[in-house]
Amino acid sequence: MTQTRTRPVALAVWLVIAGVVGWWAAYSLTMERFHLLMDPAATAACDFSLLVQCTANLESSQGSVFGFPNPILGLTGWVAPIVVGVAILAGARFARWFWLLFLAGMTFAFGFVVWLISQSIYVLGTLCPWCMVTWLVTIPSFYAVLLHTLAIGALPSPARLRRGARTLSGWLPLLAIVSYALVAVLAQLRLDVLDNLF
Description:
globular; 198 residues; 71% helix; single chain; de novo design (two linked rop proteins)
């Protein structure tokens, strides 16, 4: 079986919300990058302190890993969850290969975000507000798509693992909170956020 009998409405609604929020964060960062390119002496509107800022991240090599500003990936990439979510709400049912490709995209996004979190905390020593918004929606989106793909059997797995994925889907908010807490602890240990926030 490669798809559930009922539409995954909760997943669809989350994908639309996450896609819109992620797209807005990418758009905001893109605008900040244009602003900095036009006036190199300027600072980004999201620069609140040496610790909480966008400029250091945007102007770093990590901020344009593929030769162009990373937010452009978000401008294009976040359209996919929005379209998938809306399509599900409209009654679309996707083939196994589609879910596998969608999971591959979300896995890339998750891996890239994890790498960017590590670079932000351990190399750049900054917390970019719009980047953190991206982290906020990417992490649970990956978990949701992974668990859904396992639960419907699109990702080959034993029946026990599929049942486990269905059960874990109900715990997605807790999984996300635990992930956020882990990032917060790492940031606190490395950057002493509470003493250096502003």
